[in-house]
Amino acid sequence: MAGQEDEGTCEYMMKQLIAVIGGRRTEKALLLQAEEVGRLIARNGATLICGGLGGVMEAASRGAKSEGGLTVGILPQNDAKSANKYIDIPIVTGLGIGRNVIIARTADALIAVGGEYGTLSEIAFALQMEKPVVGIRTWDINGIICSDNATDAVARVFELLGS
Amino acid sequence: MAGQEDEGTCEYMMKQLIAVIGGRRTEKALLLQAEEVGRLIARNGATLICGGLGGVMEAASRGAKSEGGLTVGILPQNDAKSANKYIDIPIVTGLGIGRNVIIARTADALIAVGGEYGTLSEIAFALQMEKPVVGIRTWDINGIICSDNATDAVARVFELLGS
Amino acid sequence: MAGQEDEGTCEYMMKQLIAVIGGRRTEKALLLQAEEVGRLIARNGATLICGGLGGVMEAASRGAKSEGGLTVGILPQNDAKSANKYIDIPIVTGLGIGRNVIIARTADALIAVGGEYGTLSEIAFALQMEKPVVGIRTWDINGIICSDNATDAVARVFELLGS
Amino acid sequence: MAGQEDEGTCEYMMKQLIAVIGGRRTEKALLLQAEEVGRLIARNGATLICGGLGGVMEAASRGAKSEGGLTVGILPQNDAKSANKYIDIPIVTGLGIGRNVIIARTADALIAVGGEYGTLSEIAFALQMEKPVVGIRTWDINGIICSDNATDAVARVFELLGS
Fold first, then answer.
1. Which helix (H) or strand (E) holds A154?
2. For every one of its 163 residues, what pLDDT tens digit does chain C have, with 9 covering 90 and above?
3. What residue ranges in chain C does DSSP mark as E strands?
4. What is the pTM assigned to this prediction?
5. Least CA distance to D93: which residue of chain C?
6. Could you write out the DSSP letters of every residue in A74-137?
7. A120 to chain D: which residues are within 8 Å by CB?
């Protein structure tokens, strides 16, 4: 099979998992940033992981898909139907917001775009796990690397991951 | 980008997630069945999900990768390094065996190959969620569809999923 | 304060946590057994732990309270209001049936009274953790100690726990 | 049995569950505050809930027990032995820091004493759930009610809970 390309299958060579975290209800400007972050993650050959729902999560997923990237959604609900339509791999946890720890644990690095208390819990977990967290107009927490745009944020993440 | 094929990226078109569940320590004959189950899942265009560790999980993952399939491992530990080497997407839960419910919840259908008490908990959750569970030499639980080989087991799963 | 007894406070001296597991919808005869199991757990000075909801869980909690015992409910929902009225300490997990692993993990021993697939997942987890599981008309799983009445079941549990 | 008092049993009449959250490694002054918070929670007839480990959690538990209160520890590990010695009811989750969401979900209100990123995740969850969070020298997060000593912090919590 090696070297052969069947419809619907692929050689998966992406290694890094980058999370995009942020709120469901977010202003337009931040959604555009999130979408660009998603695009750049995919263009850098990484897989996007997120909470799988709307707002920042959906914008980032749409961005990643527009570049042919792979998207993983860690869903709080009991049903894959709750995923936004750009999610390739819906991980259906049924754990409610208890799933936030899995996003932080699974990601190699995180980019926070805006975000409310849910995002803050993910930031806190990620920093506790000593993972790189880059933030665009998000919580001002000691340990977050601040950035003001998608290009810079993604560049910093890959620089930190040494790739 | 559409229609273009970059190295390391792909159009992901696989829709169904089939879990292979079973023990870490298993006899050779069952490992061969698990590997064949993995191969057939990938050949049918589905994504393999499993617990990400050794034994039946590793054999099924190896089978799926040999056919260019995608593999997702729902890990109990805190670190992606605990995944077997055939896992493409390690979901690092840090939840211990509490992660078993996520495997059942995420899968569209499950195939149990042998297995001890951990596998039994996954079977129980899956049947509670009214998902198809096909078993090859596994627990004798009301609701499991018994099969005696990989080809038959996978055929039944896709028949039940209507694809 | 020591030695003094205020209204509403107490010296807590109960050491063992015994789980009663079983279904929400259960026939009358089993509910009576569950209530008797709860009574005997409390009379033996142990604390009752259960899933906190109706059916067998409620019957066992009512039994324990009728003897002045303490009851802990590990709830799947997001709200303590979902607990039955005999629960003293509602642990509100919001994890759905993912909370089943916590019941098994927290209990020193478990008594299963009837039960469907949810109960089976708890039995499986408990046996994986090598905890004593005594069953009254429940799943026929290798490792369960079968009993046919509450008195015998509770006696066996405390015998196994060496108390 | 009602009205009778057996050794080791009690009529449980405490209704409110107050969480004390904070770090394992904390300076002496904060530990004294945490112990006083624990004492006052018990004196007000509430049950203490915490993460069950050392530092602030242990100090608060010790305080609560010195007043004859009841203490619940939501443990990350797989074993009740990891609980500090002042925990009456060890809830053994095996979920690692994923258990933080349960502390926030179960508490009627929370008092944060100092704390690092783990505490921040609990604060974030609690505020997302719209629960009162009073903080003594902890994270400066919008939504936290700041206090500078145990007496004031506990008074505010019970005022907010309307009791």
1. helix A150-160
2. 333 334 444 456 558 999 999 998 889 999 999 999 999 999 999 999 999 999 999 999 999 999 999 999 999 999 999 999 999 999 999 999 999 999 999 999 999 999 999 999 999 999 999 999 999 999 999 999 999 999 999 999 999 999 6
3. 17-21, 47-50, 71-75, 89-92, 109-113, 133-136, 145-147
4. 0.93
5. C102
6. EESSS-GGGS-TT-SEEEE---GGGGHHHHHHH-SEEEEES--HHHHHHHHHHHHTT--EEEES
7. 120, 123-124, 127, 141
